[in-house]
Input
Amino acid sequence: MTWTILVLVVGILLFLFGGMLLPKGDEKKPSASKIIAKKCITLISIILISGSMCRLYTPFYLTAVNPAIIQEMVNRMQEQQQAEKNKQIRKFVRSEGEQMMRDAPVLGNREGKKTIYVWTDFSCPYCRRVHGEIERVLADRDDTRVVIKNFSIHGPLSDGPAKAVIAAKLQDPEKAAQLTNMLMTRDFYSQEDLEDQSTIAEKIEANVMKMAAEAGLDTAKLKEDMNGEVVAREMRNVRDLAQRFEISGTPFLIIGEQAFPGAIPAEQIEAALDE
Output
């Protein structure tokens, strides 16, 4: 701002007194070179004044006169960034889709022609909300599968349930889906459990095992598989893909070949599936 004001002052001074910088001569019959020099000084002064005024007025216009234009510019930039991200996601999903779902729990029709990938966390309230919206979609159509990518981002609140549903798929994909629904719709820890952080992981695992037993899973085998290579591989895959797709939080959905950060309603999911 200071430099802009200084340039404006210089421009005004040049416009008013620029002629004094030229050597004195016959003012009645000035030479052609002197006329050209005066015009050049005037032109330069006008450019300096105009540029400075624009720089001074533009922030005022954007913040006071028409602030909505800033939001419009931001929205357009975000749309462009999202379009570029969708392009990269589309390319990757087409080539690596089977790899993305190899070890992950799947809801709905596992052979469905439509696919939703969802980065989710069982301890995230927004993830639980979007899970309910996904269940509404699955209830209305039988052509869709939902690949659950358990993004473990809340430490012990996330780790145990995430590993359990991945391990459950090794026993029975249907029971893994059932356990996923249980963990998304029921509380698997209490406020009392949170009081002692040193034992929260064990308490959560015990609660998860009760649900697993209810789903008909072999809990001894489940505990063993939770520490196995398949679960570790899927957890790495989730993290690696989150980094590739710049996923910083949950929920995050890839529907078809579009990305949707945040909890979106069933209607929007349906529309994306039908595109």
Notes: The mean pLDDT is 86. Residues 129 and 237 are 24 Å apart (CA to CA). The chain has eleven helices and five strands.
